[in-house]
Amino acid sequence: MVSAVIFDFDGTIIDTEWSQFATVQEEFRRHGHEYDLDSFRSGVGRADGPHWLDVLLELTGPRSDIEEIRARRLQAHHDLIAGTEIRPGVLELIDRLERTGHRRAVASSSPSSWVERHLGDRDLLHRFEVIATRDHVERAKPWPDVFLAAADRLQIDPSRCLVIEDSHNGVLAAKAAGMICVAVPNPVTVASDLSAADLILDSLADLPYEQFGLHRRPETRH
Fold this sequence. Notes:
The protein is an alpha/beta fold. It has helices at 16-30, 37-42, 52-60, 66-82, 90-100, 112-121, 145-154, 168-176, and strands at residues 4-7, 103-107, 130-132, 161-165, 180-183, 199-200. Helix 6 links the parallel strand 2 and strand 3 (130-132).
């Protein structure tokens, strides 16, 4: 049934989302304000929502140190991610897909530079045949474009793609692309509405391989 597995990146392969929230919240507190987790959660998985820096500037007014704030926050985010483990079940699934000959891709609303840097740091970049990001499409999630771009580059029909996602917006995008979707929330997205997914798991380590035909080689037709 499934010929390819398409992974989201942020919050799915590595939990970058909690570190992003924590570092943005730190900047808000540095300037005497609070950053709301619910507001952050609503924007997870998409690239077209209000940027946190714009929200901060609405509260503080125009500033001359915008680039300093941006650079400090980004460095703090990179530092936190450096100590973050790959999420449970991810490596085991990639290993299995390589053994069974299933195609592998990443589809993300983040820019390519971000995704490729952190996959490369963990020696994972070469294990995916396709990296599709918001740089490659006009509309990021919750629109389906990035998933459809990944399927097109894999030359696999979208209906034969299984998506691994963690966010509400990501699930909506995967289903709009006509793909099967398994949602595996993280500490930020666990309270999100993931009901549109075909299956919701606490951990990717619990993925039922047989249910999706991942226990054997896929059929050769695309």
